Amino acid sequence: MHPGQPCPFSSAGKCTIYAERPVDPCRKFVCGWLAPTSPLPEWMRPDRSDLIFLPASFVWRAIPVDVAVAAGPRPKAKARAWLEAFSRDMRRPLLLQSDGEWHAYGPPQFLREMVEQISAGLDPTR
Ligand code: SF4
Prior knowledge:
The longest helix has 14 residues, at 77-90. The protein is globular. The model has no long low-confidence stretch (mean pLDDT 90). It folds into two domains: 1-30, no CATH class; 31-119, no CATH class. It is 28% helix and 25% strand. It is an alpha+beta fold. The chain has helices at residues 23-27, 46-49, 77-90, 108-119, and strands at 10-11, 14-15, 51-60, 63-70, 94-98, 101-105. The chain starts with 9 loop residues before the first strand and ends in a 7-residue tail after the last helix. The protein binds iron/sulfur cluster (SF4).
């Protein structure tokens, strides 16, 4: 429910209120790894990579931006490296949240704008 923090209803890897889970965010949420068109390999499953991939989470200058947020203490280094390579190879800007900080990948202008937003205390994904 909050990036980097486990849901209070999550216990032993399961939802304790699954039948009654709220519409927003739970029922509306589509995990990028589970999406039918997901480019992520099997080992990037959130409980293995410690990150959640949100493809085309927002649009910057008509370009879809992928967002990845920590789903554990921090994303695994291998998962982070995979996403960085995917962003570079596919030319898709990426915002990755790790250790409570945002890391931006993409064209120089995208990086500048994200730094400005983050420095101003704004949520870069909005
Ligand atoms: S489905 Fe919703 S309520 Fe249940 S563990 Fe996940 S985030 Fe929490």
